[in-house]
Every structure is written in C-alpha cells, then in structure tokens.
Amino acid sequence: MVSAGGESRRLEKATISLSDCLACSGCVTSAETVLIEQQSEQQLLRVLRENAALPEPERRTVVASLAPAAVASLAAAHGLEAAAAARHLSGYLRQLGVQFVFDVGLARALSLAEAEDELVERLTRRGEPDAAPLPLLASACPGFICYAEKTHGKLLLPHISRVRSPQQVAGSLLKRRWAQQRGTAPDRIYHVALMPCFDKKLEAARDDFRAADGQDVDCVITPIELERLLEAEGAQLADAAAVPLDRLLEAPELLVHAGSGSGGYAEHVLRAAGRRLFGADPGPVQFTPGRNPDLLEAELAADGEVKLRVAIANGFRNIQNLVQKLKRRRCPYDYVEVMACPSGCVNGGAQSRPPAELDARAHLAEVRRLYAALPGDENDASDAVRRARETVSKELLHTEYHVIESDTGALNIKW
Amino acid sequence: MIRVLDENAMSRKLEPVCSLSGHTDRVWQVAWDPAGRTLASCSADKTVRLWSETGAGWSCATILADGHERTVRGVAFSPSGRLLASASFDSTAAVWDREQAWECAATLEGHESEVKAVAWSRSGKYLATCSRDKSVWLWELTDDRELDFECAAVLMAHTQDVKRVSWSPVEDRLASCGYDDTVRLYRDDGDDWVTGAVLKGHSSTVWAVAWDGAGKRIASASDDGTVRIWAETQPPDQWSCVALLSGFHQRAVYDVAWCPLTGLLATACGDDAVRVFAEEPGAGDGGAPAFGLVASVPRAHGRDVNAVSWSPTERGLLASAGDDNLVKLWRVSEE
C-alpha cells in the first residue's frame, strides 16, 4: 500500500492499522479490528474445509463475487488480461471449493441506477422544505462511511447516498433473490467477496447488513490475501483453469461500466440526471483535475448555462476539503463520488503489490487500463438490470447510517 | 560525560537585553516577523502576544485572545509578515491577519488532537501543521483576499506524536520530528507529497528541528540531551549525522535555532539554560564539522527554557521563552 506519505509497505498479515484506513485516528477501534481479523483467507479455507467434510445434503453453497478493481489488480500482478484473470480466479476459487463465482457487474448496475434516482429526486425537490440536502455523496466507500459516522456524523450523514454498495447489493441479490430462485435457504449460502481493500470487511460486518439468517456478505478477502493463498501452494494464478464465471440472474458473465475505477458513480449520475432533467447527454464525461490530481470535476451545460456539477474526490485531503466546504455551505457540486484511497479503488489498500521491477505509478496505470478493458456491454445487460430492479425490494438496495459519538474515541483506539 | 561550564572560558557573552512579562502561564514559543520588528510569543494562557520595540524599549503591543480554547503551543509569521499562524492544543491552527488589525482570519480544522507546531514554507504557499495525532498536514493558501486554506496533503509518516515542523529556507521541503525519536523529510514529487529521508540516531523524543541558512543541513534537539547535525550526503534522500553535540546539556534540549546571518546555533534546555554554539569548520574527524560552546546563561529562565529564536535581521539578537512565563531577549557579543 502506498500511504499518503508515499512509502510502500508490505503488510504482513491482515491486521488493520490506523494508516491503512483513512488518515485519522477516529475510525478503527479494537472491536472492529477483531471483526476484520475474523474475515481472512485462512477463515475462508477453514469454512471450505469444514464444508467439504460434511455430507453433501448438509453442505452450504459457497458463492463468490468479484470486484473489477480486485480482478484488474490481480491481472496486472500476474501479467494477464482482465477477463482472463477473472476466469482463472473463477477456476482457482472452484478448486478451493467455491461452487459459484459471479462478477459484481449486475449489483453495481443496480447501485448506479438507484444512485441516479436518488440524485434526480434530490435535484427535483431542491428548495422544498425538508428536502434532502445537496450535494449527494456516494456511499460505496466504507472507509468514508466509517469516517463520516465517527467524525462528522451530523454534518455529513444527511448528504450521503442511501444506496447500498455493489458488494452489499450483491449480497442482497445472492441471499434473497438468487437463493429464492434456487430454493436454497439464505443461511445455507456462504458468500465471499473479493474486494480491493480491508475496509470492505468492516462494511460486510455491519449490523445493517445482517438479517436473522446471517450477513449478506459472510467474508471479504482481498488480492493481498489471495496472493498469500497462491504463494502457500507455490502456484500462479494462470495455473488454475480458466473457467467462465456464472451469470447472476441472467446478467452477462462480466459487466463493465463507464467512468472511474471506483465504480463510475459521478460519470453515471451526471449523464443520467442530465438526460432525465435537462434532455442533455454529454457522452463520455471529460473530468478536469482540480487543485490536485485526486480531485476531478465535470459539468453539464444545457441552454447555455451550467446545470449540473459533479466531482470525484479521492483521498483524505480531498475529503477534508469537502467537509470544510460543506461546513461553510460553499460546496459547488451536486454529486461527489468520494473515495478514501488516493486514485480510488484501483489503488485500494489491499490490492496486489506491483512486481518488483515496476514503478508504482506505472503499475497503477496498468491496473486502470485493465479495469477499463473489462468486457460487457451495459446495453446488453439492460433487460437483466430492469428485471432485477423490478423483482428486488427497495429495502434490499438501500441502507441507513448512524452517528457514532466518539468523545472517548481516543481511549479505545489501538495506538 | 557532562562538561563543566566555565562562563569565563567562553569566547563570547550572552548579554540580557530585557525580560518581557505579561503571559500568565508558561510561554511555549517565540517567533520573529521577517522584518525583525515584531516578536510573537504563545502560551499555555491561551493567548498570543506581539511585542515590539518603541523608544521606551520592548513592550507588548497586542494580545491575540479568543482564538483558541486551550494552550497555544506554537506560532510562526508568514514570509511576507502579513499573517501569523498559531498552533493549539484545541486541535486547530489559527491564522491572524495584520491587515485586519490582527483579527483571526481563518481556523484550520481537521487534526484529531493537539496541534503542536506551525510553519510557513519559504514560498508562502504552504502552511504545515503537526499534531499528537501523528500526522503532518500541509495547507495551501488558495485565496489571498478571502484567506481560504485547503488541505493539500496529510502525511502519516511518524509513528507517534509529531512535535515540530520546519521548512527549508531555500526550497519547499519540509522536516518534522517527534516522539518516535526520528526526523522525517518530505517533498513534492509532482502528484503528491512523499516522505524522503528518515533520520534516526536520537535515543529519545526529538523536540525540534532547524535548517541551516543554506538549506543543506539540519540540526535536531532531543530529550536525550544532545543536538545532532545532519547533512545531505546524496540528494534527494540520503542524509547522515555529521556532528553530535553531546555532554553540554544536563537535561532535555527543547529547542534549537540556527541563525542564517551568523551561523550560530542556540539551544533551549530543561536545565534552565540558553546556550550558543559556533561552528569550527573542519575541526571534527576527517574534516567533519564540529561545534563549540561559545556562550551560555545557566539560569536564563527560572525554569525550563522552551524555545529560542534568532532575529532574522539583527545579528546576535536572540529571543527565548520559558516555563517561568517570561519572554527574554539576549544579545551575543561579537567575537
């Protein structure tokens, strides 16, 4: 991981420390550290081993969902193209005992569609009494959510999108919709997600994502941990058979989206809101860098005036600046895609390390290229997306946040 | 080995100029404006005092109160002299504007705990702050008129409380030091600020760092009773310790100041003394620099001396701050 100070460090085991998460001390408590440590590649192996030892009728169905940033990272580290890497991962996970491997593409498409609706609603109702405030802030980054809940709850939470992240939408889809279709009880499904950072483990463990029959996502593992599994066997990712991924609810095997390597939120909502509210579609969005390379801005104009402004704000310094602008009511954006990691999810805290001889910057550029090159046409998927939205209840796509008072935060922080 | 101080054997004298009282609690730091006409001091009494010289001598011209809710731990003037920054245990830094009769023009929030120091970059573009939260923040002045600051970087290199930040006098390069016994250097690599060298050697907290006038060497003052001099052996990130001032201080060295006019080093010590060192070029092993003690005042303050600062315009004029609630001015006699 490259910290804000620019140092590269090898993380020895999956323990979170303050500097892995956002650059603040208010975020990770020792209780949460325990929650994170309970989700590891060792834990996954244990579950798979125990599952395999059971008689077949008693076994759980183990399913995996793969985030494109994690796939692109592993692809770059192993010199593979992204689709090939996804298939080798699919093969490798099945070797370990996972029965179904899905891309999160459909889940993310649902997230984006919900985010679009949410922004259109807020823009339409702007100025009305009790209207939800603008800017709307993306909710997909658990590092940001954690920070917002603990440090600026009252200020930020009303602005944060209520839409679940792709990881959690995948959990909802798998445990509620897909399980139902298969006639499997949700508690007979074990869902492991491959994600680019450790913060996603915190997200998976949230009470808001637990039903009586278990968490929507049981375990999050990351490229670093997957590399450890491979290393322990002396194996290369390409050694595993390339097995096509399963298709979730008739979505394509792999489904890319336009825009940033963090899910393309700002891009999607700008174009969608532009179309729906102003009849204008700017095509692929050109973002211009702001004060630093991790702050990107874009506008949509119609009838000769600027109608919408969106931004991508990556990294702690830009989160700080966003918070200050919100405090002073001087935020010029309608929507901000906020991500805790500089450069966004492609540079997530638990992504694979670059091969020794490669410059970190060049490696990141390669991860970005691979991410953008993932196949899957959004138009092909539109039927599947529409059907999924029609058959999944809104409750499963939305969530809530909680102000966490942490005056005594310093006392339970793991210094 | 503690060397016995014999004032009469010192080659120079540190003459008291005046003693400035007014603060009602320990004074933590003193800083000169670039014109050398205003001296700022900050205190556990939550205020900043500005002192200047009139016909009748030095006196308190202004008291900056109501800016902080707790101890003010550090102060620094901007390179233009128009702005004054203050660092407080209330977790904020404040910026005061001379052009608005020293009104508090901006409050920088974001640190999770006590802010220990502030420092302006030579270009005036950046203000650095450091905190017990282990981080160093860089703030960029984005609007000269509105005095808006934006966070330009959050540097998480230290593993403990960061005590001081200090910019090179010749370029926008930053040094910080702290409770993890190290000095760390930072520079802008184009996209973001990165950590360059880590200077290890002190066996306890490093309380202060100061650059020499040429921006090529750094002096660090430590709880271990020594001052270390570091030089850049291989730009940009290779540094090594080229001199060790050991055996002079009986307690923690809380501050070190390196005069760009004279090259003299002053130190503030927990043994209540202020000391001045001069470089003896090439007198060390293999032609390395060495520093000799040329003047000292054993009971400069009634208690710990917390800070020393050289006037930027008047040779040999030194300000000090102490736990005795006093600010004092001294003059080093010429050789």
Automatic annotation (TrEMBL), chain A:
UniProt keyword terms in alphabetical order: 4Fe-4S, Iron, Iron-sulfur, Metal-binding
Coiled coil (UniProt feature): none
Iron hydrogenase large subunit C-terminal domain ranges (all copies): 61-349
GO molecular function: 4 iron, 4 sulfur cluster binding; metal ion binding
Highest taxon listed in the record's lineage: Eukaryota
Protein function: Component of the cytosolic iron-sulfur (Fe/S) protein assembly machinery. Required for maturation of extramitochondrial Fe/S proteins.
Protein family (similarity comment): Belongs to the NARF family.
PANTHER family in the cross-refs: NITRATE, FORMATE, IRON DEHYDROGENASE (PTHR11615)
Name of the protein this chain belongs to: Cytosolic Fe-S cluster assembly factor NARFL
Gene symbol of the encoding locus: Narfl
